[in-house]
Amino acid sequence: MYAKLILRGLSRHRKKGKRLFILLALCSAAMIFTLTFQTSFTSRYEAMGIDLYTAHLAVLPTESPKLKEGFFATNKEKLELMDYSGALKDRITSDPRVETAALLLETTGMLQTLENENQPFYSLIGVEPDLLGRIFPGVQVLSSSGPLTWNPAEKEIPLYRPLVEFWERVKNPEEFIPGNLKLKGTRAEEFFRQASQELGLNPLSGESGFLEALNRFLKEGDFLAKIKPLVDRRLAERYQETLDNALADLENNREPQRWPALKKRVLRALYPQALSPVQEEPTLNRSLTLTVPPAAQEGVMTSPLVLPVVYKGFVQRFPLYFWNSYMDIRVLREELGLKESQGTSLYLRAKNLAEVPGLKRDLESLIKEHNLDLKVADYQYLGRMHMSTAQAFSVIGGILIGLFLLTVGIFIINSILLALIQRRREIGTAVALGLSPVQNLLVFLGETGVLVTVSWIIGAVLGGLMVWAFTVWGLPGMIFFPGDTLYFLWNPGAFGTSYLMILLTAGFSALLPLLGLLKKKPVDLLKEGQ
Amino acid sequence: MLTLKLVLRSLVSHAQRSFILLAVVGTVSMLLFLFLSFSDGEIENFKEGVMGIYDPPSDIRVYSAGAREAMDQGEEALTVYALALKDSPQLMEILAKRPGVRQVFSPGQMVRQDILYQGEKIRNFMWRALDPAADPWMRNKLRVVEGRDLDPAAPQPQVLLHKSSKSFIKAPVGAQLTLIGQTLFGQAVSQEVQLAGYYAPEQDNPNLGTIGFITPGGYLMASGWNPGETFALGVNLEKGVDKAAAIKDLSAWSQEQGLGLSFWDFEKLPGDVFNVYSMIRVIILFMTVIILFIITVGVMNIVAVNLQDRRREIGTYYCLGAERPFLIRIYTLEILLTNLLAAGAGVLLGLGIRAWINALKITTEESGLQLVFGGSVFHLGFSGESVGWIIGGTGILTVVTALFTLGKALKVSPVSAIKEEEA
Q1: Could you give the CA distance from residue B107 to residue B62 in angstroms, rounded to a whole number?
Q2: Residue A19 to residue B114, Cβ atoms within 8 A
């Protein structure tokens, strides 16, 4: 009987309920999207942290900066070392739960170009090249010109650095652009005349004409031959050295991709008052000098280790938080005078995430048993800082879900109130025919339930399509992830959770005005109809 | 005028009927305002907190001619800092006397130096000069949590370190530290300093962990400046003074006096783009749009039902000679005024809640949450842009509602005005 009454009621008043139906469907879709976004963000972020930075477990010396509070604890120059040998090594290598174990040397380094320009401050990780992709599978090599493995016969040591960031990119690296001209007005005009005469340019008038002619000059094959006669012009002493160095760099250069930048540097050295400094984008096969602090600090000014390195690859990094470069650990060990069993941290990757707590407990027991000066940290502890970001997004998602439910609640209350007013005659008639107010309430609740269920199905299809789209193509603009894109993960729980939440909210919201119906006497309902 | 009169009368007479619409739009506006305030708060926290310490804000920045351009174009440090302002105390005095100028100060240039303590070096600390008495603005941004305040008159230079550095430097208050590094001019320098204490910023952020404060004497040694030299001055204007006009006046005055200064609007200077917070703001704005879209459907439903119940009124208007465009105007204006009233009420309520939450001073020590909040104190900010979004969204909501409901609702026969009464 109830089913018949419910379906008849819905069918009779379907036009009036159309917009509410659409609203419920949209809310359902939005909730499914938001719930999936929350779980996808958290799961992906955690997985990214494990794959790029923390692995599953780390065995660290007790004094390791990674165990200290403070974002910059790792700025400490001194290396806190551990020994990976004996019982610890035997245990880990024989444990079937461990997929990969890698002993790393984590330190810091300063990079300088061969023109003595400082590059950003680096976190440097020495790792066995074969193990890098296994212990940190997220550190994908995006482009490379050679392996990370060090060849002692070669002068330069390979270095894999993070991918080139937007602030390192150089617009128009092969040409001068208006932003490179320092002079304005009549002084600029004077410079155009002087440079055109000296370089033999035939420019059209104005800034754009001059730049066009200058850029053509840059591309000419006999650039050096034309420039050399100008070198004897009188420059202030401090600029003469810069010019000499720029010329020497150009003459000695063996990296074809650097010709344009080096030529620009020569022109800049010739006209330092008129042209701004030349920036160069990091490129593969670029030679640099790396200075690394010694393993132990002695005295105020300790000489660092100076190593000739070459960029051999660009790798993925953990966006916004960590900026790690990688080098063959053998080089660092040799230069720092360390044994093969020495490192700053031992990272472990388990075959199964579920086995991590058990593995951690066993390692802690072993450490205690052998009285080793080590601690074990899991990925949750090591990732506590960046995981707060995921927590914050979960909270934002939770607030949004609350908003959607509030919307559902308010509009359901409104609809029920209107229905009670507009269908009073119908209710009164039903009561006159023997239906009690409680039964009427159940019919209305049933209508609400069916409406919510059917609209949820439509919403689930819509939400499911959106989730599918973002699973395949990813949600753009997510700067927290590589490629600024978050790829959703299917979460069937989101569908069930959204349905339950909407159903309960709608049911509770419908109940509030309907409770008034229980207090109505049948006579009152019929009277109002008249 | 007639339209407005009719609309206002309708609003008053149908106040009860409009209540649910007011409640919905008002509640949603309030919640969206708080949502956008969260994003405003992040940005304000970061600007006032982290950036306030890295680069204290001002209305106008003053440089010597060519200095700012040299820095922006990436000239080497020696070239840039050679363009320093000489005799800055006298310059500050002269500038402070200019009409419209409220305050002149030296924001200072941070210098990078490492700390050496008990044979261990900790790299990449950034040092800022602080004279607590002479620079109350900066001093009020910190709390000394252990030890004592800096004393510029002390025989040895003193430093304050961020409290988070205590766990890995492990130096007690009063310890002798060595600062080593290069001056701004590339010269190697080393000096002994005394650790006066540890500080916590009022608005903490993990990025402040390596910022240290040093007494002015020690700063001169570390930076390589001569006494009286500085790279830039900050000028704050009196309230109501137009910034662009002030910059023009000051530039003309400087040229007249032969001072060789350049004046820049601080907000327009190239600086760090708060990528993270900008992105969170975009996400929040996107969510706002989705919520407004969903709400629009519900509002359309309410308005449609309301108008359905007012068919007699509409029929009466037609009987009196009103035409459809006139009625569209009336009802659109009625919906607009209702929505604006509700949105306004929602924003006002949101402002009240914002004030209450800010008064609670909810604080976190979690570094990750500090990064998301922009600082250690959860703060809901305020910006005209956020209010604009809500009002603008309300306007769009009105237009869409009017477009999709009025068409059908106004298809009423004038006869219905009489017919329904008979029935």
Answers
A1: 10
A2: no
Half-sphere exposure of A100 (CA within 13 A, CB side): 18
Provide the pLDDT for residue B322: 81
Q: Per-residue pLDDT averaged across A365-389, rounded? A: 91
Q: What is the predicted pLDDT for the residue at B422?
A: 44
Which of B121, B298, B302 is the closest to A407 by Cβ? B298
- Asked whether the beta carbons of A351 and A14 are under 8 A apart, the reply is no
| The pLDDT of residue A524 | 67
CA distance B22 to A414: 12
In the DSSP assignment, the letter for residue A406 is H
CB contact under 8 A, B116 and A71: no
Structure tokens at B97: 């006397």
Kindly indicate the confidence band of residue A530, based on its pLDDT and cuts at 50, 70 and 90. Answer: very low
3-state secondary structure of A446: helix
Range with the poorest average pLDDT among A125-129, A362-366, A445-449: A445-449
pLDDT of B406: 80
Q: Taking Cα atoms as reference points, which of A88, A128, A43, A104 lies closest to residue A390?
A: A43
Min Cα–Cα distance to chain A from B155, Å = 22
Is the per-residue pLDDT at A529 higher than 60?
A: no
What local confidence, expressed as pLDDT, does residue B255 receive?
A: 93
What pLDDT is attached to residue B85?
Answer: 92
What distance in Å separates the CA atoms of residue A239 and residue A243, rounded to the nearest whole number?
6
Distance CA A226, CA A229 (A): 7
B126: helix, strand or coil? strand
Please identify every stretch of chain B with a pLDDT value under 50, giving residue numbers as ranges. 273, 421-423
Cβ contacts of A487 within 8 Å, gap of 6 or more: A40, A44, A470, A471, A474, A475
Alpha-carbon distance B214 to B189, whole Å?
15
Residue type, A157: I
Q: Coil, strand, or helix at residue B106?
A: coil
Do residue B210 and residue A414 have CB atoms under 8 angstroms apart?
Answer: no
End-to-end Cα separation, chain A, in angstroms: 27
* Residue A382 C-alpha, separation from nearest chain B C-alpha, in angstroms: 12
A191/B150 Cα distance (integer angstroms): 51
The distance of A90 to chain B (nearest Cα, Å) reads: 32
Q: What is residue B63's predicted lDDT score, i.e. its pLDDT?
A: 94
How would residue A121 be classed by pLDDT, with cut points 50, 70 and 90? Answer: low
Q: Is the complex ipTM higher than 0.90? A: no
Look up tokens 């992709």; give the residue. Answer: A133
- Chain B interface mutation, best of A32, A268, A388, A391, highest count of B Cβ atoms under 10 Å: A388
pLDDT (tens digit per residue) in B133-188: 888 888 888 999 999 999 999 999 999 999 988 887 889 999 999 999 989 888 89
**B-contacting residues in A 116-135 (Cβ below 8 Å):** 121
Whether the CB-CB separation of B143 and B203 falls below 8 Å is answered with no
Beta bridge partners of B125: B113
In SS3 terms, A150-217 reads as CCCCCCCEEEEEECCCHHHCCCCCCCCCHHHECCCHHHHHHHHHHHHHHHCCCCCCHHHHHHHHHHHH
Query: Residues B133, B140: contact at Cβ < 8 Å?
Result: no
pLDDT score for A73: 64
Q: Please, are residues B57 and B231 in contact by the beta-carbon 8 Å criterion? A: no
Maximum CA pair distance of chain B?
101
